[in-house]
Amino acid sequence: MTLKPPAFDEMFDSDSDIRPHYADFARWLSAQPSSVMTAKRVEADLSFRRVGITFSVAGDEAGTERLIPFDLIPRIIPADDWERLDAGLRQRVRALNMFLRDIYHDHEIVRAGKIPAEQVFMNAQYRPEMQDVDVPEDIYCHIAGIDVVRAGAGEFYVLEDNLRVPSGVSYMLENRKVSMRLMPEAFGSNKIAPVAHYPDLLLENLRDVSPSGDEPTVVVLTPGMYNSAYFEHAFLAQQMGVELVEGRDLFVDGDTVYMRTTQGPKRVDVIYRRVDDDYLDPLSFRADSALGVPGLLSVYRAGRITLANAIGTGIADDKSTYLYVPDMIRFYLGEEPLLSNVPTWRCGLQQELSYVLENMAELVVKEVHGAGGYGMLVGPGASRAEIDAFRERVRANPANYIAQPTLALSTVPTYVESGIAPRHVDLRPYVVCGSRQITTVPGGLCRVALREGSLVVNSSQGGGTKDTWVLER
């Protein structure tokens, strides 16, 4: 094991002793010859290639499909830590749903002065078409992916909220399958909470919010096979036992959405959509969209179809709205946030902009609508020229950026070319909201920065994934 970096090490304590929750796995790992681990690593790669788990990188003109590296060594989270995280995630998503309901109806949080009106109504992700639209059970965000990190002495912090079309759950499920197959002895020596029930949980919750009665028809709407996450769309449809459809497979007749089938039209009640707002309905949003369903919004406004997630949820995962989530929790729930935000500067405010411009070499600067590691600068890892160029981008449109301190993300043991070494990680747990309860799946998508010293975990930026083992009591 290489020397620990100056960050919270999830496997070793400050005295370099193995933490209790890693003890069983560490004993198994120490008994594995390097040749065995190398063989397992090769087998894992072959497994992912056989299944077809690849992604394409935005801007890659060759359209090359890449394999996301899978690391054999799991991230292990003890039961106590998960219980605290679980409670904080459910609290946060509950407040975010209440915020979405409020801003598209009564605007109480704006009138109370807890969030500026311009932050809501001038936001590019605010959809005026959704004003006064009632959605089933007042659930706007049915599936959330909340990115969390550990820093400092191991405290959890929310890095960002993903409420539009959160991706990555297929990797959580496939990572578990591979680790169970390649490391059955290690898996069997720990009592690990399951994740395989996620598709059933998702389908049950989608059916629960159907506007119709018994046996609702649920479909997964994909932009098509050229989308970077198409594998996941097809995977989830297959796992739930529902149809995977494109916009051309659906049509509106009167106040109902139908699916074309070989037996004739079939009514659709719930659409788990993996298509962005702008492309959902060419009659209401982008007229040039060939991905959506003409007239879909009118059926939605009439309460005859459920969309998961709802149109307009993007305003709640905007990186500038993120700053106000603790205030939302206090306002709607009358509770203190169980999970803290990362300290954040808004470049749209002159005083905070000045600080960011002067200290950019020490900060992480992000576009408020950016994703996948694009549109961001990690100051400590950037060159002088890159910092200067990014500074000019921020000056040209300051309201489009926020900045955060460069956190020393926690590390976990990772199998790299040189052997086993600590690498920085984050975690995207998935939160499912139904008519009866909000549920988290124990674990999530753990992303790991495979390059030594790197803090950027995104797969498009060279990161990989790990299985996440949440220990049961």
Automatic annotation (TrEMBL):
Organism phylogeny: Bacteria, Pseudomonadati, Pseudomonadota, Betaproteobacteria, Burkholderiales
Protein name: Protein containing domains DUF404, DUF407
Pfam families linked: CP_ATPgrasp_2
Domain Circularly permuted ATP-grasp type: 74-449
Naturally occurring in which organism (per UniProt): Orrella dioscoreae
Ranges annotated as spanning the membrane: none
